[in-house]
């Protein structure tokens, strides 16, 4: 049963193979001698991202009435499943090791991740671990202190800051390299990788072919539906890097910038409870709340645990959460969690 697979911790779980990636709740300060350097624009990315967004907005505004009923069902559902590959797979499983998964589930999650069409798994995981270890410092790939546009999409339009290259290599990735699923899809030590052809087929080719051959959708509508779904999922992912670091409350830790943002949680399958996540990055729920309406990724992981495919689900004890809120929180309501008054003595809480 599910309840027998959850482990509650009084302190962050310690694992040498995830150095600084799952247990750190506050960014590690960088040395004063942070390398400086210019970050020239990557014009290929600037033009490509701009064209994708113009195509997506224009095609939706001018042709949404022409799409068949099943295209309206197929494209959003395909996007949701791809999103689970990011949230339950790349993020909560591989980047944070907040739970463990048996081989069939790891293969399935890698398959779903390929449907999303984002960067290779190894790079995504390394970037995210670097983000948590050096949050909002020059070594953070999408440093939110540089403004909304940079943290949302601008970081993909320019060369990386030298500090990212210098300190990002300090993040331990040995556990990822040891995973045969990652090795098959994306092994940085091997010049031949399967990720790119698999990703291109699952993200762009397959979702275009299915509507055309299954319910006679036009090629034009099918292709543009794929573009819209792809751009939508990209921006949903970007919201966690931008909106959830700028707008919202901080009931768990007022000392860090990430916030609780239910709007972001809605669009990202539960990844918007970001102040909690940066306080307890090793929690498989990535939130305190238990409701599934704004955290379907948690529901997915728990369903997988019922089938015996997910296990060792990690979460902090409620007393630990309460102590953290009383000590570091801003005193605001944590919505679907609890309201912790920092001025009220801990022993009076029930």
Automatic annotation (TrEMBL):
Going by the UniProt record, its keywords in alphabetical order are: Fatty acid biosynthesis, Fatty acid metabolism, Iron, Lipid biosynthesis, Lipid metabolism, Membrane, Oxidoreductase, Transmembrane, Transmembrane helix
Q: Which cofactor does it need?
A: Fe(2+)
Q: Where in the cell is it found?
A: Membrane
Q: Pfam family of this protein, just one?
A: FA_desaturase
GO MF terms on file?
iron ion binding; stearoyl-CoA 9-desaturase activity
User: GO cellular component annotations, sorted alphabetically?
Assistant: endoplasmic reticulum membrane
Report domain Fatty acid desaturase positions: 72-281
Q: Where are the transmembrane segments?
A: 41-61, 73-95, 107-125, 194-215, 227-248
Report residue spans for region: Disordered. 1-31
GO BP annotations of the record are:
unsaturated fatty acid biosynthetic process
Topologically, how does it sit relative to the membrane?
Answer: Multi-pass membrane protein
What family is it from? Answer: Belongs to the fatty acid desaturase type 1 family.
Q: What is known of its domains?
A: The histidine box domains are involved in binding the catalytic metal ions.
Q: What is this protein called?
A: Acyl-CoA Delta(11) desaturase isoform X2
Instruction: Name its species.
Output: Cephus cinctus (Wheat stem sawfly)
Lineage, broadest ranks: Eukaryota, Metazoa, Ecdysozoa, Arthropoda, Hexapoda
